[in-house]
Design brief:
Strand content: 5-15%
Shape: elongated
Structural class: mainly alpha
Oligomer: single chain
Largest sheet: 3 strands, mixed
Strand order of the largest sheet: 1-2-3
Order of helices and strands: HEHHHEEH
Number of domains: 1
Length: 171
């Protein structure tokens, strides 16, 4: 009877290993460079031109503020000797206020440019992601990796290992 139990256990182990090996060979991996596919999309050129035009507009505004700043500094330096204390104080306040406005504008412009880029390119990125998902499903890929960004862009029937990692970390 003991030999029979051992044989059944051995058979079960072999069946388990065989099914595990089959599951491993059934996985189908693919990869794509999303940067390359985005560069090939016909919409990309017009979106890049629109983004550049917006960046140029922001640069023009920044340059105008910088020119105003330079003018105020030059005026202050040129007329420093003839200014009264009240005028000097007023001019210095104007210059420091303008410096603050320039810094605030620069920070805001960077954020606005990023938001504009997202507004323009997110629909295109979503279109590419949807196409990748459809190709993955149609061609029975288990995982598709994006070599352009180093991320996973499609998976089907994968295992979420978050609980295992949380346990390992004691979380």
């Amino acid at each position: 009877m003991k030999a029979f139990k051992k044989a059944i256990a051995l058979f079960s182990l072999v069946a388990l290993i065989s099914s595990f090996g089959y599951a491993q060979t059934a996985a189908k991996f693919g990869y794509i460079d999303s940067n390359e596919i985005l560069s090939l999309m016909p919409e990309t050129d017009s979106l890049q031109k629109e983004l550049k035009a917006y960046a140029d507009y922001l640069d023009q505004q920044m340059n105008a503020m910088a020119m105003e700043y330079q003018t105020k500094i030059q005026d202050y330096q040129t007329n420093f000797e003839t200014m009264s204390a009240l005028i000097k104080q007023t001019k210095e306040k104007e210059i420091t206020d303008l410096e603050s406005r320039i810094k605030a504008f620069q920070a805001s412009a960077d954020g606005d440019l990023g938001a504009k880029q997202a507004e323009l390119f997110n629909p295109l990125i979503e279109k590419v992601k949807n196409a990748i998902t459809e190709v993955g499903k149609e061609n029975n890929y288990t995982y598709i990796f994006d070599v352009g960004t180093g991320s996973l862009v499609f998976y089907e029937n994968g295992d979420n290992i978050l609980p295992l990692v949380k346990t390992k970390l004691g979380i």
